[in-house]
Amino acid sequence: MSDVLDRLILSLDRHAPRDGVWSTAFPRLWTIRMGSPGVELIHAMQPAALCLVVQGAKEIQLGDERLSYDASQFMVFTTDLPVAGRVFQASPERPYLCLRLDFDPAEIADLLVQLGPPRAAPSGNAHAVAGHANEISRGLFLSPVTDAMLDATARLLDLLDHPQDQATLGPMAMRELVYRVLRSEQGERLAQVARSDSQTQRIHRAIRWLKQHYAQPLRIEALAREAHMSTSSLHQHFRALTAMSPLQYQKQLRLQEARRLLIAEGLEVARAGHAVGYESPSQFSREYSRLFGAPPSRDAIRRRDGEAVRLPA
Question: Which residues are in the HTH araC/xylS-type domain (predicted)?
Fold first, then answer.
């Protein structure tokens, strides 16, 4: 495994030449580099994806839960989640290096037709909603990296250096990597992404609606109708998947977009708050401070003064 890992480190070092998140020749594949530990948590909306670290380590916070992982484990997000992350192990000599492969639900569904039911998640899952035909598990998980997964990842990254092979072999290489996740001990949790009749899919519909209408007042009854669920079932399953209520999820969407408007577009504080649905400037400032640790005026001043502020890519 160490030889393959060394090969992956060299490849990612080439294809993430500086700190940041880098697109690749494959639209769903990203390379990530960070040359020093992060001082503060960076908030972002994380899409459904596989994240594989080959050097360094990172922690992810979802609600009140924190997970740390390095090259011994891979992380999977099965739905769009508002998380905060911080690289805590990195240096200029040994930077944090990671790849992210965004999932295609149609690809997962096609693989399931061929594979049949994947392995069930280990028993004793504290984040599952019991008593239902389709249990909902937390929308992110860690699992041990296998030699087969590293081999598949190495073949995929090798294609970045061979443009003539990318159109033919690229889709197969990405498909194999998803296959390896489905064959892992947590494969059943990823399979829920593609099952149209699952409770997970109903919550995905609610999440899509929230992302499209985050600036509008939230009416739980309307959201439950969108998901084809009762309001009590929506609350129960939404929290199981995301570690938060629909209202808390919407708040995260609003505040992360407001921060982007302040820093990336230079909007005034009052305009940014209003743009994401806040009618009360004091409520906006209070909730912004609670999430980011300082009022929105601080980020507006930092932007105005030209101070570098890291936003998620």
Answer: 204-302
Same domain, 203 and 170: no
- 33 DSSP 8-state letter: E
Cβ burial of 249 (10 Å; 0-12, 13-18, 19+) is buried
- Across residues 119-142, what is the average pLDDT? 61
CATH number of the structural domain spanning residue 222:
1.10.10.60
* Contacting residues for 136 by C-beta, under 8 A, at least 6 apart: 128, 129, 192, 199, 200, 203, 237, 240, 241
22: closest CA among 160, 217, 169? 160
**Residues sharing a CB contact under 8 Å with residue 194, sequence separation 6 or more, in sequence order:** 105, 106, 108, 109, 112
pLDDT computed for residue 86 by the predictor? 95
| C-alpha dihedral sign at 263, 45, 86, 245 | positive
Give dist(CA 44, CA 47) in Å, integer: 9
- Cβ within 8 Å of residue 286, ≥6 positions away: none
Q: Which is more confidently placed, 69 or 309?
A: 69
* Sign of the Cα pseudo-torsion (206, 52, 60, 294, in order): negative
In 3D, which of 206, 152, 214, 145 has the Cα closest to residue 178? 152
- Report CA-CA distances (Å) from 71 to 2, 15, 296: 11, 18, 36
Considering the domain architecture, whether residues 98 and 169 belong to the same structural domain is answered as yes
CA proximity to 100, closest of 132, 80, 126, 74: 74
Q: Which domain holds residue 149?
A: 1-194
Q: Does one domain contain both 7 and 112?
A: yes
| CB neighbour burial string for 171-208, b if at least 16 within 10 angstroms, e if fewer | eebbbbbbbbbbebebbbbbbbbbeeebbbbbbbebbe
Mean pLDDT on 39-66: 93
Residue-wise pLDDT tens digits, 242-272:
999 999 999 999 999 999 999 888 899 999 9
Question: Is the residue at 312 inside a domain?
Answer: no
